Amino acid sequence: MNASKLKSKFPESERKELRRKYHKFERIIRKNYTTKEPHTSYLYGFLSLIYDGITSITELKSKMRKFFISTTSQLVVEEQDVMEFIKTAKDKNLIIVDPNSVKLSDEGEKLVELTYLQTTQITHYMRRLLSEKAVLILTTICLVILSSLKIFIGFQLSSQGLISEGFENLSDFIKIIIIFLIGIKLGKDKIASVLIILTMFITGGIMIWSSIEALFNLTPIFPTVQAFLISFLSIVLNWGLMWAKGVVGRTSGNLSLLSDSKDSQLNVMISIGVIIGLIFSIFKYYFVDALVGLIIAVIIFKEGIEFLWGLRKMEEKEFDISDIKVYGDNLYKNRLTGYILASIRRERIIRSELLENFKQGLSLGRVYYQGFADFFYKDLGPKIAEKYLNKLIKDKYIKEENGELSLTLKGLKAFYEAKAKEYQSRAKDIYYKRKPRMGAIYCIIILIILIFLIVFANDINLWFQSF
What we know:
4 domains; three-stranded antiparallel sheet; 3% strand; mainly alpha; Arc Repressor Mutant, subunit A; two-stranded antiparallel sheet; Alpha-lytic protease prodomain-like; 5 strands
């Protein structure tokens, strides 16, 4: 049976029930994969190819060397990786090995089907989570939380600054309305993007004016635990929104979300600036807060102008949304760069062959890993890969002579650095024994510190004022 036909074998309407039927499948998956999640390992792809009827070891090696998925740290699949997959699968009784071919055992077939069900289920929920509607709802919730906390604590501490900042955050709802009504409903994406960038310029202008005024008329700033906590919370929430808007804007082709990702990046910088100002105000260096605000304002104008400069191409035929750069692009940049460098380092190859390999590898990834192959970026393909290749050539990581691609010394250094990170990540991901849930431990530690700061907030505030 072809693995792509698993979709008809397990129709979407029955997957929820099948998930209940295989109530132990999480344990089976963890038992048989060396990594914590199947979608971060090529072992699942290797087993799926055998399930798909490819049993020749030579053909498996040929297929695996082209494989591409976005959610792994592995640059490319090498011949020794395939041999490792064979050994691992054989030791776990997932495959039966002949001198020149392999086939799945009953346990191996069941594992592929269970992994497919899990991957399909996670992909379904990830698509819903990484949607324009979900990001707008998440942005609204974060705005309500931040604004409410700033206004509430501002009244509690009689801080006009926090109260004003809270009401100013409420004005960000205008951007949500712009994206929803103008960008999504009316389809005027460029107009929505320009309006959001203009609001960034207004914020930057206000910051420049207030910072210059503050430099010439220094007034005491009274740091409080509450102000620090709200600023840290603002960094965490806005950093998450910046990444989510960047990824969803890129995958959906929504320019207004990409521009709003820049706005979230601005909010992160402002919160960092606030923390820096609060720290120096403890030691009575009040001018630092204004100076940092001035620097951030200049960065705001720089980022906004760069974004608008990218939008100017929209009227031209060569416009490509991937020309607009946002933080979420790092996911694709790192994986594509690693794949290209490793493919060229591995063998003598020409441009067309490299791009064809990527096309086939991405297609294989989409069949078996679904949304994790391209991380829901439907436009990812040879065209995007060629743009990265051209940039690597321009930046002198790769040279092209007589049609053949090769790494420069700079490119070779970059390859080994990426390979070192790959090995570190793969070693960290290997799951061979039960370990303490470090995430839960970190959450408990943070919660204890948070409770301590809240309980002793007044004492700490008095200590700040004693300097």
